[in-house]
């Protein structure tokens, strides 16, 4: 069985084709600048060199046509016909409370996702564009929706409700949803395999740390709490997002700077985080370099970030009544030994002690970086959301 995995953004489309026999990646790529001048597709066969296809991509339908042509190309393609695509797995960011797991995409599901679009106006519409395009191009191929929010639907009301008038939840479904669920689920499963223990017996904190960052408390295989909330703005300090702040700051800035709510929303989402504090960049690599060169604001930005992650680890350990593993994943979590070291340096009281010899210089490699005597294992686990989407798609189909 071969599954095409699609992740559609507003002007981009990432894809992978995976042979589920052996879970072999056949090819991957990305279509960029969809609907803009200078659009192109980067196509990379697993056993070949990267191809750049420069062509006009008016919409997501054009992009899907071009990527299918690339998959079928006699020189750098990996399929002999479209019939080899047995299913399509779509990453969908927001499913609200409607779905607690992946589902076969029907018109009823599409209608439900349309209803959720006001909860994720930047993400759901392009996700739906990809679904509509596939329905038109390959109408007989089964499609599955895999939702970022679904894994967190096991949270109890005490974790997902905000202390606002309850009727606002009833009317508008204002609550914590959580995101990056596909990644949190994947690395939790893989960590249990690495530790040789059933996931249903473990208490794990997963740290998905990248430009967008979130954490989850996973108790016995279920998400019971997570840092992102009604939107991906809540929780950790991120590349450009502020994370947790006093909500009264919003009205204060509006009044002092004569700004609209849209203006302040733009500041909190696109001009804050480590970019806003450091003034250097939203890329943690640039900030780490600046900090090493003596930039004080860069140092403070990193310290704020590290402290916030450490605080949530402690909070989730208390919430679960113990901890078996701390898992680092995504761009920063997988590749920054400095971040892992700084986040864990004060966690020995929990039984989590990092081993600098195991941690230093390790990037993107599935490994345990805690000391041999550490009762709480510190794990580096590369995420693979596309493979998780393919697995979910295969299971549904």
From TrEMBL:
Entry cofactors: Mg(2+); Mn(2+)
Pfam families attached to this UniProt entry: Acetate_kinase
One Gene Ontology cellular component annotation held by this UniProt entry: cytoplasm
Cofactor note: Mg(2+). Can also accept Mn(2+).
A biological-process GO annotation: acetyl-CoA biosynthetic process
Keywords assigned by UniProt, alphabetized: ATP-binding, Cytoplasm, Kinase, Magnesium, Metal-binding, Nucleotide-binding, Transferase
Top-level EC class as recorded in UniProt: transferase
Record GO terms (molecular function): acetate kinase activity; ATP binding; magnesium ion binding
InterPro entries: Ac/propionate_kinase (IPR004372), Aliphatic_acid_kin_short-chain (IPR000890), Aliphatic_acid_kinase_CS (IPR023865), ATPase_NBD (IPR043129)
EC nos: 2.7.2.1
Residue numbers annotated as active site: 148
Family: Belongs to the acetokinase family.
Entry protein name: Acetate kinase
Annotated site location: Transition state stabilizer: 180, 241
Pathway recorded for this protein: Metabolic intermediate biosynthesis; acetyl-CoA biosynthesis; acetyl-CoA from acetate: step 1/2
Compartments, record wording: Cytoplasm
Self-association and partners: Homodimer.
List of residues binding substrate: 91
Residues annotated to bind ATP: 14, 208-212, 283-285, 331-335
Known function: Catalyzes the formation of acetyl phosphate from acetate and ATP. Can also catalyze the reverse reaction.
């Amino acid at each position: 069985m071969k599954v095409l995995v699609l992740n559609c953004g507003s002007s981009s489309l990432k894809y992978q084709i995976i042979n589920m026999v052996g879970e072999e990646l056949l090819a991957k790529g990305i279509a960029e600048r969809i609907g803009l001048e200078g659009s192109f597709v980067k196509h990379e066969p697993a056993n070949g060199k990267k191809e750049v296809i420069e062509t006009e991509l008016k919409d997501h339908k054009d992009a899907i046509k071009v990527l299918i042509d690339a998959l079928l190309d006699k020189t750098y393609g990996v399929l002999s016909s479209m019939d080899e695509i047995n299913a399509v797995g779509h990453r969908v960011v927001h499913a609200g409370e409607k779905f607690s797991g992946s589902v076969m995409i029907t018109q009823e599901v599409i209608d439900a996702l349309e209803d959720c679009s006001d909860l994720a106006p930047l993400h759901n519409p392009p996700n739906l564009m990809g679904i509509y395009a596939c329905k038109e191009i390959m109408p007989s191929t089964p499609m599955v929706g895999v939702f970022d929010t679904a894994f967190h639907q096991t949270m109890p009301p005490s974790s997902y409700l905000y202390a606002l008038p309850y009727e606002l939840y009833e009317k508008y479904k204002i609550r914590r949803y959580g995101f990056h669920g596909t990644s949190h689920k994947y690395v939790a499963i893989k960590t249990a395999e690495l530790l040789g223990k059933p996931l249903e017996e473990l208490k794990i904190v997963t740290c998905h740390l990248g430009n967008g960052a979130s954490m989850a408390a996973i108790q016995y295989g279920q998400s019971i709490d997570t840092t992102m909330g009604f939107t991906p703005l809540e929780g950790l300090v991120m590349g450009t997002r502020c994370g947790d702040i006093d909500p009264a700051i919003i009205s204060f800035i509006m009044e002092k700077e004569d700004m609209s709510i849209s203006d302040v929303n733009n500041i909190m989402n696109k001009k804050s985080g480590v970019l806003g504090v450091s003034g250097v960049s939203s890329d943690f690599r640039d900030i780490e370099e600046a900090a090493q060169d003596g930039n004080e604001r860069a140092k403070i930005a990193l310290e704020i970030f590290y402290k916030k992650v450490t605080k949530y680890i402690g909070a989730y350990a208390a919430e679960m009544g113990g901890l078996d593993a701390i898992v680092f994943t995504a761009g920063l979590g997988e590749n920054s030994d400095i971040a892992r070291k700084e986040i864990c340096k004060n966690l020995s009281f929990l039984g989590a002690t990092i081993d600098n010899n195991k941690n230093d210089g390790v990037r993107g490699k599935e490994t345990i970086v805690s000391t041999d005597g550490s009762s709480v294992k510190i794990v580096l686990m590369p995420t693979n959301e596309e493979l998780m989407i393919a697995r979910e798609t295969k299971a549904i189909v």
